[in-house]
Amino acid sequence: MVIGDNPDLSFPLSLAGEKCGVSDMAACVTEEPTAAALSTVCCTELLDPDSAGPDELISSIVAFCFVVVIPGLILLVRGLLLGRMWTIRPTRGLPCLTRAQSKTAWGKKRWHLRVGFFALDAFLGLFAAVVTASLFSTVAKVTVGRPRPNYYALLFYTEHTLNGQDFQHWSITSWPSGHAATAMSGLVFLAYVLWSDLVALVMWRRRAHPRLSLVLVMLGGFVVALLPMSAILVGVSRIREYWHRPDDVLVGFIMGFAAAHWAFQFAVLLPFRHEIGSPEWKMNPKWLDEEEQRWEEEDEELRLCGWRRRRARLKEGGPRTGTSSSAGGDVAKGPSLQAVPPARVAEADDSARKLDLYA
Prior knowledge:
The protein has helices at 22-26, 35-38, 41-47, 60-82, 96-108, 111-115, 119-144, 151-160, 178-205, 210-240, 246-269, 273-276, 285-317, 342-354, and strands at 13-15, 18-20, 323-326, 329-332. The chain is mostly helical. It has a domain at 60-149 and 163-283.
């Protein structure tokens, strides 16, 4: 195989940690190869039927775990911490606390601002981001058919290897980088979700804990920034191993970022577009004060759920006692519970009327 006037396509392959160009592998398949040539790593890997093939620092399986499995587990833990995987419409048979949360979520649509976005929406968004980036990058690869930087080495390896691997089609799928696109899509989407949760948490408690809110923003922003930086490292590894050129990786980053941004807007924000797109979403101080007051009222409603349950117990049979009588007189069998004062019952009734959850 003659390289000719295309030095840009003559970068080496990585075989067992060794950089092997066409000339290094050609010394193994001559009519009379020398013992020194056959003892090299390049020849050993080329002529070994059980060879694993060219090295990849981040293979497709590792990239899948890095982009889909790990972010999915993080979103699962996030959903468990939030306490709910999806909303439930308020019905007559639900417990008091669940009904209050459901009424808030489906009625005022403000529950998202307190605890972030629902885990189900986040899972759908992650799936949409990764699938969209992978689909567009694959279509672009097949359509453009740009040779990889190690194009000649891949063809030579395919022609002379004994392990049966065929990289002929793979050698012309350089533009854009699929690893860069999928990594950027999954990790940027995760960064979007975590940052939104952090902003909602800080805005919720910024008045009560201003210093803690500042620390959370700084630490949370640093952690969130590590996610797209990790995606950048994936692209750098593809350039370092001569699988892609810098512009291939750059276009993959753009595709992945666009897919993540679209998925976040479509899967997470679209159901609440009428609120998020409103002028109040600009986070002006007056609106934040109103929201904080509304959150305090909702906290009061949730607290009154305890009065509702206590009132129901009081209505069941009146005060309970732990005493019993015998033939010889009253003998105490346990601590007696005094009757609840009428004022407490009236207070519970008044609290229940304020929180009309069963209407």
